[in-house]
C-alpha cells in the first residue's frame, strides 16, 4: 500500500477554460462597438472622450523609442556578425521596395478603373483655409538622406523620429559588437531595460479597450455616421483595394514564407483590433516584437527587420496615398494622365518612407506628396479630412499585417525561424500566460 502510494503520479489540476471576455481582442472590439454607439447617440459625451485615446498613444510613444533602441542593440550586438547584419538589412530593404511598389500599382490601377472622384467638380479655391494644414515643403532625395542622421541622439529620442533612432541604434549596436566579450555587461543592462519596458507595455495594454472606446466615440461624434454616406464610394473603393492587396500580395507572400495568412492574422488579432481604434501602428510595436520572438523568429531578425519596416514598409499607407491622390485629382478636375501618375508613383516611393506610424501623420505626408506633383491642389485635402479616420483604420491595419509578414519572409531567407515552434504557436493561437 505504501509502495503504491509512493509511486503514484500526482494529478495535475485542470485549467478552467478561458472566458471570452478575458481576451484582449474581444475587449478592444467591444470598446470600439461601444464607442460607435456613444458617439452616434450621445455625441455631446463622445466629443470629450478623445483624451482616452490620446493618453494611451502618449504612454506608448513614451517608451517606443527606447524599445526600438534596446531591440536593435540587443539583436545586432548579440550576433556580433556585422556581415549577417548587413545581409539582413539589404534583403529587408529590397523586400520593402518591391512590396510597397506593388501596393502603389494596385492602388493606382483600381482607383483609375472605378473613378470614385469623377463628377464631383470641386472648386479647390472653396476649400482654402479649411484644411488647417501647413504648406508642404518639397524635399529632395539629398534632403531625405541628411534627415536620416540626427544632430543629437537625445533629440531623436525626444522627437520620436523612428528613422533617426534606428540609425543611431544600428551604429551603437555595431560599435558594441566590435568590443567582443567586453560588451556583455552592457548587453545585460540593455536586456534588463528591455524587459522593464515590456513590463510597462503589458500594464499599459490593460487600458487599450478604454482607449479604443474613447478614440472611436470622438471620431463618430465629431464627423458622424453621415460621413460614410457622403464619401461612401471612396471608402468602398479603398477597402476593396485593401482586400485586393491582401489577396494578391500578402496571401501568396505568406504562402511563400510557409505560414497561413489567416492563422497569422488570428495570432495578432488583439493588435490588429487595437489599431482599428487608435489608428496608430506605434501602439502595438512592443507587442509585435514579443509575439514574433514567441513564434520562433530569431532575435536579430526581429530586432532589425521590424523597426526598419516601421519606416520603410508602409504597405497600407502606400495604398492610401495612391488612392486618395488620384481621387482628389478626379474630384478637382486636375489633369493627371498616365505619365503624370508614373511620376506620382516615383514621388510616393520617396515620400511614403520614414513615417512614424503616428495617427494623423499621413495627412502631412499626403500634403507633401500633392505639393511635389504641382498638379493636384494641396487644399483639396479638406475633402477627405472627415473620413480620414475611417480610411486610416484600414491602412494602419494593413501596415501592421504587412510588417509581420515581412519579418517572417526575411526570417525564412535567413533560415532564422524555428519552424516547429512557429506552426505550433499558429495552430494553437496566441495564449496569454497564466
Concise summary:
With 434 residues, the protein is mostly helical.
Describe the model.
This protein has 434 residues and is mainly alpha-helical. It has one domain (23-428): Orthogonal Bundle (Proton glutamate symport protein). 72% of the residues lie in helices and 0% in strands. It has 22 helices and no strands. α4 (50-79) crosses α10, α5 (82-114) packs antiparallel against α18 and α17 (315-331) packs antiparallel against α21 (388-413). The radius of gyration is 23 Å and the shape is globular. The protein starts with a helix and ends in a 6-residue tail after the last helix. Residues 1-15, 128-138 and 354-359 have low confidence and may be disordered.
Please give the CATH architecture: Orthogonal Bundle
Q: CATH class, please?
A: Mainly Alpha
* Count of discrete alpha- or pi-helical segments spanning 4 or more residues: 22
> How many strand segments?
0
Q: CA-to-CA gap between the ends?
A: 36 Å
Stated plainly, the CATH topology is called Proton glutamate symport protein
Q: List low-pLDDT spans.
A: 1-15, 128-138, 354-359
- How many structural domains? 1
- Rounded to the nearest angstrom, the radius of gyration is 23 Å
- The fraction of residues assigned to DSSP E strands is under 5%
Q: Which percent bin holds the helix content?
A: over 70%
Broad shape: globular
The main β sheet shows up as:
none
Mean pLDDT reading? 77
